[in-house]
Amino acid sequence: MEFTIRAATPEDCKDISRMIMELAIYEKMPDQVKISHKELEQDGFSENPFFHCLIAEVPEQHKNKEGHTKVGYALYFYTYSTWKGRTVYLEDLYVMPEFRGKGIGKALISKVAQVCKEQQRVRLQLAALDWNTPSLDFYLAKGAQDLTASEGWHLIRFDGEALDKLAQEAPKN
Amino acid sequence: MEFTIRAATPEDCKDISRMIMELAIYEKMPDQVKISHKELEQDGFSENPFFHCLIAEVPEQHKNKEGHTKVGYALYFYTYSTWKGRTVYLEDLYVMPEFRGKGIGKALISKVAQVCKEQQRVRLQLAALDWNTPSLDFYLAKGAQDLTASEGWHLIRFDGEALDKLAQEAPKN
């Protein structure tokens, strides 16, 4: 199937927001989604954007029964390693179920890897759920390392009350 | 012991670089450190810095036998969650062994949490090694969640040849 990968524009944010929710449902955590297309427009398309996004689009004749032609996205931002320097983090990679198996996910992540090379960023990282074997297999088949399995890295989070409490305890000076 | 926490300046980069290596040795991966104080100066102190850093400093009379007064650091950068919006990632938190147990690590991470609140960032994340129980216990005691244990998130990495190959396979359009 024909498809194109291009940089997202503010006009894509409603579709990105729709697909963020589809991905969260797939990941069994839809109640965690708190932002809408308005925040995405503001945060991703200002002078110093907080993220970058690629969109996968199919021609009109391949639109699905709901009329969608924007069928996948890759959302990433720039990060930093104190060991390696400038790096990239892939926050989300998603292709709608009915458009999978056509090379769209591969094309999206390859384009993000191309951005890494163009911008001299030496590493691309992401997080995947341990029960999500289709995704894990997809990444590992392309040469990725599972650092949690091989080195023992665990992802740790402060939010809500724990973050508030921590901030309140900051020294004055 | 008296100490202060302040924003790092370019003049701190040699000490930050020294402590990055000390932390990498503690984490048993010193051979992974490829950047020096020069990259840190360039990447952290330009107009659009790739990271931010706090330094913990003790008064002259508490310097250690090597003469160091800069005894800890917290290096962080801004990230993005498609579920929650603007977030912060704590790449490194380190206090020199002989200065531990004095509240310096707690003060450093509390200051980063304060930055989160000031900048309306709803989440602070980091990665810790599963065998590093002093660090894990430190974070969990302060209310952090271990997302790898509770939700099954694994950290996945592309670098070196795998990243090169992925980039080469990107579609032209």
TrEMBL record, chains A, B:
<comment type="similarity">
    <text>Belongs to the acetyltransferase family.</text>
</comment>
<dbReference type="InterPro" id="IPR051016">
    <property type="entry name" value="Diverse_Substrate_AcTransf"/>
</dbReference>
<dbReference type="InterPro" id="IPR016181">
    <property type="entry name" value="Acyl_CoA_acyltransferase"/>
</dbReference>
<protein>
    <recommendedName>
        <fullName>N-acetyltransferase domain-containing protein</fullName>
    </recommendedName>
</protein>
<dbReference type="InterPro" id="IPR000182">
    <property type="entry name" value="GNAT_dom"/>
</dbReference>
<feature type="domain" description="N-acetyltransferase">
    <location>
        <begin position="24"/>
        <end position="173"/>
    </location>
</feature>
<dbReference type="GO" id="GO:0008080">
    <property type="term" value="F:N-acetyltransferase activity"/>
</dbReference>
<dbReference type="Pfam" id="PF00583">
    <property type="entry name" value="Acetyltransf_1"/>
</dbReference>
<keyword id="KW-0012">Acyltransferase</keyword>
<keyword id="KW-0808">Transferase</keyword>
<dbReference type="GO" id="GO:0006595">
    <property type="term" value="P:polyamine metabolic process"/>
</dbReference>
